[in-house]
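Regression test case RT-17, inverse folding.

Input:
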């Protein structure tokens, strides 16, 4: 009887452990459907928590999952992932407070990273390794978020109908010579908001508004679709020039779809404002959650993601620019050569966002 009772206890413990492990694995890759509807991050025993890190991320790229798996293989620390929209994840972490399971917040925009800092959900990352891996310009002033990769927002053009010497600056896209020839997506797209926020910072609100009016006047069609759709519209002859992020050009060229590869080969990439204020950069970054239960593991993950090997993978697999200068760039990025980038504090992309949206609405950029 005692033997049977002991066997039952052991079996119950095994089943409980299996269920706990299953909950953790099922969370990976799950999207948060809204501020109040996302599934709760997996609960773990104290022992399991010492070998885990919970990441709330707005990045949805395959390379991220690959890097998380590699980190686990090398460190033995499991990465539990909750995916969702950045602002919803911020609100969720705020709502959860000290009970949050989140250890790291990762997103793709400098303005949103600043919003997370202003929301009071982050704490400084203290790591000599991180400081060596990531130059100061790619870190928050208080180290509350750390850059992981950058992408440039550039001018793309039809190789058949436009010569590179016809291009110069973002500001020039608002001139009459591009009337009816410009393709760009909606003002609701975060990357357009941050580009405009940077122009407000560099040129002032009045000049920025004049630029936005000119852009609207020159649009070849009502804004629609994503960045890759602007490139496809150029090749289809709907317009001659467009605005898009560099990494999308790489994704077109690396696509398994022959038509997308054709589109990628048919457009040229131009880095604007090289003689003036530089090309606009945006940044992906990771912030350490103030109430992290696995702080040491979270810092280890940041150290790994900013290391040479992981940075090389960000570039070669997702065509992003590494923040660690020791990393190798993807061959495509290397062919574009070095370029001058804007010297704008990434935090300004957040603080100028409200003004950017006010002007967008005023000038009718849909």
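Golden output:
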């Amino acid at each position: 009887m005692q033997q049977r009772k002991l066997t039952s206890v052991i079996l119950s413990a095994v089943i409980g452990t299996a269920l706990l492990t299953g909950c953790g694995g099922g969370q990976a890759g799950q999207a948060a459907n809204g501020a109040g509807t996302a599934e709760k991050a997996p609960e773990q025993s104290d022992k399991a928590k010492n070998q885990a890190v919970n990441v709330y991320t707005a990045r949805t790229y395959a390379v991220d999952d690959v890097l998380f798996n590699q980190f686990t293989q090398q460190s033995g620390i499991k990465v539990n992932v909750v995916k969702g929209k950045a602002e919803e994840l911020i609100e969720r972490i705020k709502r959860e407070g000290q009970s949050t399971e989140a250890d790291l917040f990762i997103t793709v925009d400098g303005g949103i990273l600043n919003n997370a800092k202003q929301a009071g959900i982050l704490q400084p990352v203290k790591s000599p390794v991180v400081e060596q891996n990531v130059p100061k310009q790619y870190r928050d002033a208080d180290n509350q978020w750390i850059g992981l990769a950058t992408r440039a927002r550039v001018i793309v053009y039809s190789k058949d109908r436009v010569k590179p010497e016809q291009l110069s600056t973002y500001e020039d896209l608002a001139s009459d010579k591009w009337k009816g020839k410009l393709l760009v997506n909606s003002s609701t797209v975060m990357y357009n908001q941050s580009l405009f926020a940077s122009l407000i910072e560099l040129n002032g609100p009045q000049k920025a508004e004049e630029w936005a009016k000119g852009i609207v006047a020159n649009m070849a069609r009502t804004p629609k679709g994503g960045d890759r759709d602007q490139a496809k519209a150029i090749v289809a002859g709907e317009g001659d020039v467009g605005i898009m992020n560099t990494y999308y050009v790489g994704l077109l060229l690396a696509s398994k779809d022959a038509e997308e590869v054709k589109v990628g080969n048919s457009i040229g990439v131009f880095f604007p404002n090289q003689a003036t204020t530089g090309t606009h950069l945006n940044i992906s970054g990771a912030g350490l959650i103030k109430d992290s239960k696995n702080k040491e593991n979270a810092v280890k993950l940041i150290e790994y993601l900013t290391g040479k090997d992981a940075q090389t993978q960000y570039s070669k697999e997702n065509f992003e620019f590494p923040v660690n200068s020791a990393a190798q760039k993807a061959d495509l990025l290397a062919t574009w050569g070095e370029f001058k980038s804007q010297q704008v504090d990434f935090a300004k992309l957040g603080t100028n966002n409200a003004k950017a949206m006010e002007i967008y609405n005023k000038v009718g950029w849909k």
